[in-house]
Amino acid sequence: MKAAVRVFGLVAACLQLPFVALQAAQAITTIHASPSVESTIAIDEGRLAALVLWRGQPGWTLAAGEFRNSGGGTADGTITVGIQRGAVSLDLSYTPRDGTVLFRGKTLRAPTGTNVILVDGADRRGGGAIAGFLTIDPGSANIDPRKGSLGPLFGRSPDIAAFLQCDAAVPEPTLPPDSPQGLKGLIMMGMKGYCDQIPR
Questions:
Q1: With the CA atoms of 27, 130, 198 and 89 taken in that order, what torsion angle do they form, in degrees rounded to the nearest 10?
Q2: Is 163:55 a contact under the CB 8 Å cutoff?
Q3: What is the Cα–Cα distance from 137 to 183, expressed in whole angstroms?
Q4: Helix, strand or coil, per DSSP, at residue 103
Q5: Of residues 9, 61, 62, the one with CA closest to residue 39
Q6: 12: pLDDT confidence band, cut at 50, 70 and 90?
Q7: What is the DSSP letter of 138?
Q8: Lowest mean pLDDT among 13-17, 56-60, 71-75, 122-126
Q9: Which letter does DSSP use for residue 96 in this model?
Q10: If you write DSSP's letter for every residue of 38-58 in order, what string do you get?
Q11: Is residue 71 within 8 Å of 25, Cβ to Cβ?
Q12: pLDDT of 3
């Protein structure tokens, strides 16, 4: 049974998870972006409200243990997101109205107009740190994973494209001996995320 749960977690780490209807941000989802990055995107009335990029070592999202994504919104527009991959549990809240960011018990102030938050060292002891804030204009790029690739969106910012570290090697997952044939290849393909879809 534990082996089956482990395999499910590995596959889920590479696939889009269901959206959650919210009060402030209409939809939030966390989806794999690259070998080392998970992306959480919040959409509010058809616009990009926030994009959080969680970066660790390549393959960190394949850690054994609990697999969780969460998201919520409040009447003042605050967006709260969280992920757990194995022993790594991260939560962040952002209020676009005044730029307040709460992460690991610390309050930071993002520049006006920020809609991208970079978190680096997500898999380190203590949960990493905010590495930067960006403002991106999606233009005509899709921002909803239900409607297509996020690759063109990521490609609109050289800083995002660099943060994804798409050149990083994809680690091989460790699977139970009785795993279905071809599962390892499927997981490794999924671990690339949107890297092959980002315009160069």
A1: -60
A2: yes
A3: 37
A4: strand
A5: 61
A6: low
A7: -
A8: 13-17
A9: T
A10: EEEEEEETTEEEEEEEEE-ST
A11: yes
A12: 43
Q: How far apart are CA 140 and CA 158, in angstroms?
A: 17
Q: How far apart are CA 31 and CA 44, in angstroms?
A: 17
What pLDDT score was predicted for residue 191?
84
Confidence of residue 11 (pLDDT cuts 50, 70, 90): low
CB 175 within 8 A of CB 10: yes
* 8 Å CB contact between 62 and 111: no
The model's pTM is 0.85
Read off the pLDDT of residues 120-132 as tens digits, 9 standing for 90 and up. Answer: 999 988 779 999 9
Residue 34 parent element (H or E): strand 27-34
Q: How far is the first Cα of the chain from the last one, in angstroms, to the nearest whole number?
A: 43
Residue where the block lists tokens 């534990």: 2
CB-side exposure of 160: number of CA atoms within 13 Å? 28
The token pair at 119 is 């978190």
The length of the chain in residues reads 200
In 3D space, the residue among 91, 96, 81 whose CA is nearest the CA of residue 22 turns out to be: 81
The stretch 59-76 carries a mean pLDDT of 82
